[in-house]
Design a protein that fits this description.
The chain has one helix at 19-46; strands spanning 48-50, 54-55, 58-60, 66-73, 80-92, 97-104, 111-119, 129-136, 145-155, 160-162, 168-175. By secondary structure, it is of the alpha+beta class.
């Protein structure tokens, strides 16, 4: 019997006997697809959006990794996947470069995304730029957590700063379905 691109079978011109069996098989296949789609829509309804992080006015002249923002994620009550994005406005002295990372839970926590995003604009004569950080966490998480944006000088001896404005961090939390 012929098959549609979605995998539904149907009788060809010579297979027109017992049409009720063909209709029943088609109806069961469509019901299964509609049920799967409905379950996906219900999961999407549970997704949550978080964007109320506060960036700390940070100025550093050492090479210690520090948090410049923290976004708290409360326990949604189910296993979930977290998707995180951030944009950081950084001012970096010439001949200095700063590495910004998205981390889970603490300054020494899991790094989201690989490799770390690096701001190399400090090598130019015009310090200051927006560094885009984007990561997707695919591991299953449970319970409350926090997402941190951290910064660390890794080239040069100059200072760098992140003002308390002009930067952002956001996260979506969606139910994990294996």
């Amino acid at each position: 019997m012929p098959t549609t691109p979605r995998g539904y079978t149907y009788p060809d011109a010579a297979g027109h006997t017992r049409l009720h069996e063909h209709f029943q098989a088609l109806a069961l296949a469509v019901d299964a697809d509609v049920a799967a789609l409905a379950a996906h829509v219900e999961r999407l309804k549970l997704a949550k959006w978080y964007d109320s992080a506060t960036f700390t006015n940070t100025s550093r002249s050492d090479a210690v990794e520090v948090a410049v923002a923290t976004l708290s994620i409360p326990d949604p009550g189910y296993a979930y996947r977290i998707n995180v994005g951030a944009g950081v406005t950084a001012y970096v002295n010439a001949a200095t470069a700063v590495r910004f990372r998205l981390r889970l839970a603490s300054v020494t926590g899991t790094v989201l995304g690989s490799p770390a995003v690096e701001d190399t604009t400090g090598h130019s004569s015009t310090p200051g730029s927006t560094v885009a950080l984007v990561a997707r966490r695919s591991a299953v998480l449970t319970g409350a957590t926090s997402v941190l944006v951290t910064g660390q000088r890794f080239v040069g001896t100059g200072s760098w700063s992140v003002p308390g404005t002009d930067s952002w961090i956001m996260a979506t939390v969606e139910p994990w379905v294996p």
